Amino acid sequence: MNEDIFLKVDNYISNLLAPEDKALTDTIKSLEEEDMPRISVSANHGKFLQVLMMSCNAKRVLELGTLAGYSTIWQARALPENGKLISLEVDPRYAEVARKNVENAGLSHKVDIRVGKALDLLPILIAENEEPFDFIFIDADKPPYKEYFDYALKLSRPGTLIVCDNVVREAKILDPHSTDERVRGVQRLNESLQGNKNVTATILQTVGVKEHDGMVIAVVNR
Ligand code: SAM
Fold first, then answer.
1. What phi and psi values does residue 132 have, to the nearest 5 degrees?
2. Which Gene3D superfamilies has this protein been placed in (predicted)?
3. Domain boundaries in the chain?
4. End-to-end CA separation in angstroms for the chain
């Protein structure tokens, strides 16, 4: 199949149901202006995160991997006024850009961007007795995805939705001999879900403006 058709349909859907306003297009522009990687979720995926959040009435959200705050803004917009989103970002420069973008979107009162390695910050959230999160979006570096998921479970309650992006990687996950650490990281997570009695999980393939990829969608069992 001509892949151009996925792009056209993705654009059709986002024009119809996930149009970007100035705060979102400014956030995408900031990636170029600040020489940051252009690896944010697509507009459609931002809207998809909102739909998932609203389906579980999410008031408390945890995000791993902020970049310029594009997915942060989509998610924060689906929170009620008293909702809270904590986003973890290893790069202090990216975190600063994201804070400005979140402020520009009028969402600073809901968003707390914390700087550091997620594997260092997650145990701190646990030690601080953070209330369980309703929705967790894992979108940071791929090698420790399984460890991130295990921490996410510790910060969850029955019914929490956990979404992990980029777990198909243009079908590279089909190669059991892959030497790519990112592929190996997501393979470890994907395979661990098979026997994980704590969650009901699946993987949704995604195509469109981004390359062929996929997302884990897992709900914590009652
Ligand atoms: N969620 C963002 C969006 O859609 O707008 C995109 C996130 S980007 C794919 C991954 C981000 O994770 C980068 O900003 C990167 O600096 C950050 N990151 C990489 N390693 C990390 C780590 N160990 N802890 C926290 N963040 C990390």
1. -55, 145
2. Vaccinia Virus protein VP39 (3.40.50.150)
3. 4-164
4. 41
Joined tokens for residue 68: 């310029």
Atom of ligand 1 at shortest range from CA of 41: 4
Per the DSSP assignment, residues forming a β-bridge with 202 are 217
Closest among 96, 148, 140 to 122, alpha carbons compared: 148
Identify which of 32, 36, 47 has the alpha carbon closest to the alpha carbon of residue 209.
47
**Fold classification of 4-164 (topology level):** Rossmann fold (3.40.50)
Residue 46 and residue 14 in contact, taking contact as beta carbons nearer than 8 Å: no
Mutating to test ligand 1, I would choose from 91, 211, 213 the residue with most ligand atoms within 8 A of its C-beta, which is 91
Q: Which ipTM score applies to this complex?
A: 0.99
Q: Return the DSSP state at 90.
A: S
pLDDT tens-place string over residues 148-200: 999 999 999 999 999 999 999 999 999 999 999 999 999 999 999 999 999 99
